Amino acid sequence: MKRKLDQDNIPAEVPAAKTTADSGNPAAEEATFDRLGLDSRILQALVKEKFPKPTLVQAKAIPLALEGKDILARAKTGSGKTAAYLLPILQSILKKKSTVSSVKGTSALILVPTRELADQVSKAVTAFSAYCAKDVRSVNLTQKVSDAVQQSLLADSPDIVIATPARASLNLNNSALSLEQLAHLVIDEADLVLSYGYDADLKNISKSIPKGVQTFLMSATLTTEVDDLKGLFCRSPVTLKLEEGESEGDGVSQYVVKCGEDEKFLLAYVIFKLKLIKGKCIIFVGDVDRCYRLKLYLEQFGMKSCILNSELPVNSRIHVVEEFNKNVYDVIIASDEHEVVGEEDDEESTSKKIGSDEQGNAAEGEGHDNETQPAKKKRKAPKRDKEYGVSRGIDFKNVACVLNFDLPTSSKSYTHRIGRTARAGQTGMALSFVVPKELYRKHKPTSIPSTEHDETVLAKIIKHQAKRGKEVKPYHFDMKQVDAFRYRMNDALRAVTGLAIREARTRELRQELLKSEKLRRHFEENPGDLYHLRHDHELRSARIQPHLRHVPEYLIPKEGRKALAGSDGDHLGFVSMRKETDNRIRKARMQNKYRNKGKRGSGGGRKSDPLKSFNAKGKK
């Protein structure tokens, strides 16, 4: 039976206030977007984007936001926080423009810690305002354009400005950005903003924020940094601590393998070459060098992967993530330099150190590479993007496994990393390699300083996960079976020299710069050409050994792949590397092409063997 609707299209017997009930109330599951009082054009866009119903954070935050209240929301990664603040902001802008025709000025400022997240938010704004694009204009200040171009974009007074705090502060200082008409301020991933060194920029921005501005602080965790921002920008915010149930899936299954530094590479070879992992995978490593060492190592065995690090141009990084989400790539090797900052107990002091080092909007990144360089050296450290982040913010879709090739240095970083998988009710697996104290520096060519404290960090991770009701289980590979592959690992590692890694970094950077800068206009006019560009091509800086690409049958145990993974083999499965399909098709084509080669009288191929018919004296 149809229920009577009031003038706001809300069922008369279901008050709108019901959606703001206690955060633990399962009634949120019954909420729908049309009951939240959103504009019909926004609802139409939500249908187009296949948003069936609001998530828990959206069902709780949107009604409060429409009432004009400040919101401090903690919800896990992938819970829909972006839509939770964008939809009420769009609703407010459309409502204002329907009553006042000549409204000009920036209504919303959205601050994010990384360029990748800024691009993601910008695309969400475009998607949600698809049917009201003439009324809502947005600008992403993190795009790599000149200051003059940015000033011209801001001169048109866009309704929504998306920026990192550094970019927003810079444009406020040169008077390009005006916040006189500001009605909404959003700080997304609020707990990361200060730890990325934006404290000075945020204080500068706070001086230009008018009184009475509605503030959204969205975060996956509530930390002391979030409390600082709360005191700086909010006025009596409503705090939402939302923990969505995992009834739709079992969440993340967490496993730990204790092994030596060289055994990390051995297990990576076994896992990916023998296809023991199911689905797409993100491999986290400690620094940029490790990215290329692991990529070159996997290339020895004919396995493709792409790289994501702070040295690559921002356009290339965004394109890599997009192609990964479209299932073009299955394996990403990501360096998480911003997370490699030392012991968890020293996180607060480390964050302050990062902030002081990176003031002045410098674009150079931090990491232990820079810290270990002597001050006397004249050679400049590699230029890295401080507005880069991969373990948080970026929306990786359908990630089945997160492999912590190098364990992070804190339980907080670990939580952020494994949050890339098991999103939106799906299941996922997190597998971490841990180097015991007695095995540290036993294999110097592959050792890095952060592994010295792996066991200490692991204890903190286990304790932290136990508080959340999660268990980190040991995963036992049958090393007797795995050892049969050790000599192949040694062959491959010997080919990946330090010189090969440096050449690979230079070659990759040169290729990506060529794609993103010199051909940018061509790609804008011909987007199809950019789509076909691959980021998982072979670098070929290391000595290639063709015999390593094939796995001899005598190396595989009689019991099959499950024997390698011990009793826990059921938790592992198939990962499509896509190259297998290509090889099968290519092999069939080659067979058809040369099927009749060498037969006399056949239509295709040669009629005789050129080596046998060769005459050095020439034809008589």
Automatic annotation (TrEMBL):
Residue ranges of the motif Q motif: 31-59
Protein EC: 3.6.4.13
Pfam families given in the database record: DEAD, Helicase_C
One CC-aspect GO term: cytosol
Chain ranges of the Helicase ATP-binding domain: 62-240
Family annotation (Gene3D superfamilies): P-loop containing nucleotide triphosphate hydrolases (3.40.50.300)
Record-level Gene Ontology MF annotations: ATP binding; DNA helicase activity; DNA/RNA helicase activity; hydrolase activity; RNA binding; RNA helicase activity
UniProt domain DEAD-box RNA helicase Q: residue ranges: 31-59
Compositional bias annotation for Basic residues: 586-600
Reactions catalysed: ATP + H2O = ADP + phosphate + H(+)
GO biological process, one term: maturation of LSU-rRNA from tricistronic rRNA transcript (SSU-rRNA, 5.8S rRNA, LSU-rRNA)
UniProt keywords, alphabetically: ATP-binding, Helicase, Hydrolase, Nucleotide-binding, Nucleus, Ribosome biogenesis, RNA-binding
Domain of life from the UniProt record: Eukaryota
Location, primary (coarse class): nucleus
Region (Disordered): 1-28, 340-387, 584-620
Role, per record: ATP-binding RNA helicase involved in the biogenesis of 60S ribosomal subunits and is required for the normal formation of 25S and 5.8S rRNAs.
Name of protein: RNA helicase
Taxonomic lineage from the root: Eukaryota, Fungi, Dikarya, Ascomycota, Pezizomycotina
